[in-house]
Design goal:
The complex is a heterodimer of chains A (96) and B (887). Helices cover 61% and strands 17% of the residues of chain A. Chain A has 96 residues and is of the alpha+beta class. The radius of gyration of chain A is 15 Å and the shape is globular. Chain B is α+β, with helices and mostly antiparallel strands and 887 residues long. Chain B is elongated. In chain B, 40% of the residues are buried. The chains are: A alpha+beta (96), B alpha+beta (887). The interface between A and B is medium-sized, with 22 and 23 residues.
Chain lengths: 96, 887
């Protein structure tokens, strides 16, 4: 879900995805390289994201990932779900 | 769907695998480099940066592997690895591999061969357009299930038809219908048939060369046309493409060849018909009678009409016909049968029986291999436990074992295919010619597909259970106990398998025993005549012999004259043959017993309008002496009969059936004319040894009753009949130098040919049963030796405590008895089911005959006991000291 979210703004390559997640979560969430790529490939296999070779900021060849339509749908659904869940969880945590 | 996905991935992997791996590497490398750069930017030295990055990544190849799994190609990698490992394992155990591969190969080979035969005979559709809509239409009467129609029937049927798109008829003659044809290489005699012009269109056959008959080319004056079979065209006319349009002489008349049929297409049965000419368009008789048994009728069902509907419609047509025509018997009716079934007959049961028998062998082989694998699984449980302890999932282990089994099955399948191809040839060579379409039997792609399928099924059958079993033992337990010992559960599974095996063997043994018994009983059927020392030959009397130079104008006069000429010719022939040294008697008949051919005749008893169909034969009085058929009552034909009232002889069965409790001698019957029964002769097996006794009418050839142009010459000799064949041939030549003598055979050979199908089935079933029995013996031996091995310590203790050898042996044998006993019960139950399939192929023996089944059981028990002897002896030789020291 987080991966999908990071891709919602713009196509990114794997390294950038990992960094973006680390940055946004203030270093709380770190995605391990060992699980990032399998996750990416799985998403690609499910046609939620697609990939294309491009050129990175430092002028090197890198593979960029982008959300597909189906991916966007799944992301929207997941975001909504997560919002409900997190509100519910925080309510519970607040009251007790 | 899931399979498709995996296949797609596999395809992707094979095609683009290396590229994909490279891309993953590049991507991961880029990530790694970026990370390093970032670390350097934060102030780390390049060296440090690398180390930190590497630590975060773990091993890059693991990342790649995980990535590949995510892409769904990891499974394929596993399979490859499993197979490679499997090959290594199998190579390390050559004896095990060889035994397993040979067992599977044998079973699959047998299956492939039988499948090829069964498919050729049973499953392959007839080579016509939409063959399932083709039917044969027969006439039928209460005591005669199927016989040919009269041409007038054909006319009426076609006129009143509501259910068929089209109907056609063919005339193959009652026996063989042959033409003298001038070919390129001289005169030849070809089997021919007259067919209605629309037969080819009805079957959906187009000539390979030329054209088919036109709609009006069955009218006299326009019908001197001929179609050749591909065989005849190749061999007699030398592949001449200009044959179409040229003229050949058929029976002295010029015929124009208009076409050549495609290869491997039979228009009519019997096979090997070489020449087809138009059937002259039938004309309506002045008075409709029962008519002759003259034409085969074929038809194509209208779309949507079932065979049953067509049958009902035809029966209705026959009912109204017999109502309208008083001279037609009310007993006549019609029968519609699918053409496919019509041409297969009893072979269907035979094919089914062979298929069951061979499936049994395959099952038994699979059980044996399963046993072998379980035994191996026990010794490998240590290895499995270690692998499980190191983190292999159970599914992964099962997959590993299945991959090995798949390899075994593939090797076995390949062996089987080679064996099957060879066996098919053997089978075809062994098979009796009565199995139809035998020449179409071959191992082709479908058969290969069948082989692959049976190999795969085999792998699953014998593989899954042992694999599950081998991987079930918890890692801890197996490691603790070590490789030397195994749990009792394995023993129990193997025991159940062996029991099942015994059951299967009982079925195949019983089937074989029943068939062998049938064969034995067949060989001892009272034939009603003495075949020893009798030579038989067929003489086909050419048209020129019975055509007068100045034929009388009147049809009946002409026929009478023709019959006189034939009789005179036959008498000259007999006189010449009787003069030969070594010849005791010589006679003629229109039908030879056991030859498969028969002629039917309807007769009525005085005061009854019921038409009775019986076999007829027209004989020279010496015929009875030649065959040694006993006269039971009355007298034989005499010269006086030629002028006096018409005389006829009847068989005992006819007397029993139509004159129960009284003597037939002196009674009268009518068949076109009135006859007096002057004598009763002993029953003779008619069409074949297997057919039940039939009522027979014997007519006197000297009394100019219906003559046939094919005569069977029978000669009783004082010497070996085969040695006199050449002399008989010469004698015939002296009467007519151009007269060919055909189908020269001894009656002993004819009897042997009659037994051929049963002999074939008995041979095949007996060899299958032997293979099954051998496999079962190996299975029992294997399980017992394993059991004895495991119980060495227990046996040692028993001996140490004073058990004598007999008791120890009893220990082993009692185990066998339980296995075999359970198997026997299951097997006998299954035999009862199989018995229904083979009932029709048996002769004079019931599928549940206690004596025969007893023999099967005793055989099995003896073999099982023998198989148990070796392990039992080993058990009694256990040295208690050694056995206990093992601890």
């Amino acid at each position: 879900m987080m991966v999908l979210k990071t891709l919602a703004l713009e196509p990114l390559h794997g390294y950038a995805i990992a960094r973006r997640i680390a940055q946004i979560s203030d270093g709380v969430l770190k995605i391990e390289e060992g699980s990032l790529y399998p996750a990416l490939y799985r998403l690609e296999d499910r046609r939620l994201i697609r990939s294309a070779w491009g050129v990175s900021e430092n002028n090197r060849k890198a593979k960029f990932y982008d959300l597909t339509k189906a991916g966007r749908k799944v992301l929207d659904a997941a975001t909504e779900n997560w919002a409900r869940l997190s509100i519910a969880v925080s309510k519970v945590m607040d009251t007790t | 769907m899931a399979v498709l996905t995996i296949l797609r991935r596999y395809f992707r992997d094979v095609v683009s695998g290396p590229r994909m791996a490279r891309e993953i590497d590049q991507e991961v490398q880029f990530h790694f480099d970026s990370l390093v750069e970032e670390l350097i930017a934060r102030g780390a030295s390049p060296q440090e940066a690398r180390t930190i990055a590497a630590r975060r990544f773990g091993r890059p190849d693991l990342v790649r592997d995980a990535a590949r799994y995510a892409k769904g190609v990891g499974l394929i990698d596993d399979l490859r690895q499993d197979l490679r490992y499997g090959v290594r394992r199998l190579r390390r155990e050559p004896v095990f591999t060889a035994v397993a591969v040979l067992t599977i190969g044998l079973a699959i080979g047998l299956n492939t061969a039988i499948f090829a035969v069964v498919r050729g005979v049973l499953l392959r559709p007839l080579p016509y357009y939409q063959p399932d809509r083709l039917v044969a239409i027969w006439r039928t009467a209460p005591d005669q299930p199927r016989f040919q129609a009269d041409r007038a029937d054909f006319l009426d049927w076609r006129e009143r038809n509501t259910v068929f798109e089209d109907m056609a008829a063919s005339h193959e003659g009652s026996l063989h219908y042959e033409f003298d044809v001038m070919t390129r290489s001289g005169a030849a005699r070809l089997r021919g048939a007259e067919v209605s012009p629309n037969l080819l269109a009805l079957l959906g056959v187009t000539p390979a060369l030329g054209r088919t008959f036109g709609p009006d080319e069955d009218l006299p004056g326009r019908n001197r046309l001929a179609l050749l079979s591909a065989e005849a065209w190749k061999h007699l006319f030398d592949h001449d493409v200009h044959i179409v349009g040229s003229r050949i002489r058929v029976n002295g008349e010029p015929y124009e060849v208009i076409g050549v049929l495609p290869e491997d297409i039979e228009l009519t049965y019997p096979k090997a018909t070489a020449l087809f000419v138009p059937l002259e368009r039938p004309r309506r008789p002045a008075v409709r009678t029962n008519g002759a048994m003259d034409v085969h009728v074929y038809a194509r069902l209208k779309p949507g009409v079932t065979v049953a509907q067509a049958d009902a419609a035809m029966k209705a047509v026959m009912r109204s016909l017999t109502r309208e025509h008083p001279r037609m018997s009310k007993d006549l009716s019609a029968l519609v049968a699918p053409l496919h079934e019509d041409r297969l007959g009893a072979s269907r049961d035979a094919a089914r029986m062979l298929a069951i028998a061979v499936a049994l062998v395959l099952l038994i082989a699979a059980v044996n291999i399963a046993n072998l694998l379980i035994a191996r699984g026990v010794t490998r449980s240590h290895e499995m436990a270690i692998r499980a302890a190191l983190g292999s999932g159970r599914l992964r282990l099962v997959r590993q074992l299945l991959a090995e089994n798949l390899l075994l099955a593939a090797l076995g399948g390949a062996t089987g295919l080679a064996l099957g191809t060879a066996l098919t040839r053997v089978l075809v060579a062994l098979a009796p010619p009565t199995l139809p379409r035998l020449d179409e039997v071959a191992v082709d792609l479908t058969a290969v597909g069948f082989t692959c399928a049976s190999a795969a099924v085999c792998a699953l059958l014998f593989g899954v259970l042992p694999a599950l079993r081998a991987t079930r033992a918890g890692a801890g337990v197996a490691l603790k106990i070590g490789g030397a010992c195994a749990t009792g559960r394995h023993g129990r599974t193997r025991a159940v398998l062996v029991s099942a095996e015994v059951g299967l063997v009982v079925v195949s043994l019983a089937a074989a025993a029943l068939m062998v018994t049938s064969l034995w009983r067949l060989m001892h059927v009272p034939l009603g005549f003495n075949p020893r020392g009798v030579l038989a030959a067929e003489v086909y009397i050419p048209e020129r012999v019975y055509t007068d130079r100045n034929p009388p104008a009147d049809f009946f006069e002409r026929r009478k004259r023709g019959q006189e000429l034939i009789r005179g010719f036959a008498d000259r022939l007999l006189a010449e043959v009787r003069r030969l040294p070594g010849v005791e008697f010589a006679g003629t008949t229109t039908c030879l017993p056991l030859d498969g051919d028969y002629a039917l005749r309807g007769f009525e008893l005085p005061g009854s309008r019921h038409l009775n169909f019986v076999s007829e034969r027209c004989i020279d009085p010496d015929y009875l002496k030649v065959l040694g058929v006993r006269l039971i009552a009355g007298r034989s034909f005499s010269a006086a009969d030629r002028s006096g009232p018409r005389a006829v002889l009847v068989s005992r069965e006819l007397e029993r059936t139509y004159f129960p409790g009284q003597s037939a001698v002196g009674k009268r019957l009518s068949s076109e004319e009135s006859f007096e029964i002057v004598g009763v002769v002993d029953d003779v097996r008619e069409q074949s040894v297997v057919t039940a006794l039939q009522p027979v009418l014997y007519f006197d050839a000297q009394q100019d009753v219906a003559q046939m142009v094919t005569l069977h010459l029978v000669v009783r000799t004082a010497v070996d009949p085969a040695t006199i064949a050449a002399a008989v041939r010469d004698a015939v030549k002296r009467v007519d130098p151009e007269l060919p003598l055909r189908n020269v055979t001894t009656l002993d050979d004819l009897v042997a040919r009659n037994l051929a199908p049963t002999r074939f089935y008995a041979t095949v079933l007996a060899s299958f049963a032997s293979v099954a029995l051998a496999l079962a013996a190996i299975g029992i031996y294997g399980v017992l030796s394993h059991a004895v091995g495991q119980r060495t310590r227990e046996i040692g203790v028993r001996i140490a405590l004073g058990a004598n050898r007999a008791r120890i042996a009893w220990l082993v044998f009692s185990e066998v008895s339980v296995l075999v006993g359970a198997g026997l019960v299951a097997g006998l139950a299954a035999t009862w089911g199989v018995g229904k399939v083979i009932r029709n192929l048996l002769f004079n023996v019931s599928p549940s005959d206690p004596g025969v089944l007893g023999v099967a059981i005793v055989t099995l028990v003896v073999v099982a006991a023998c198989a148990a002897t070796v392990p039992a002896r080993r058990a009694t030789r256990v040295d208690p000291v050694n056995a206990l020291r093992c601890e």
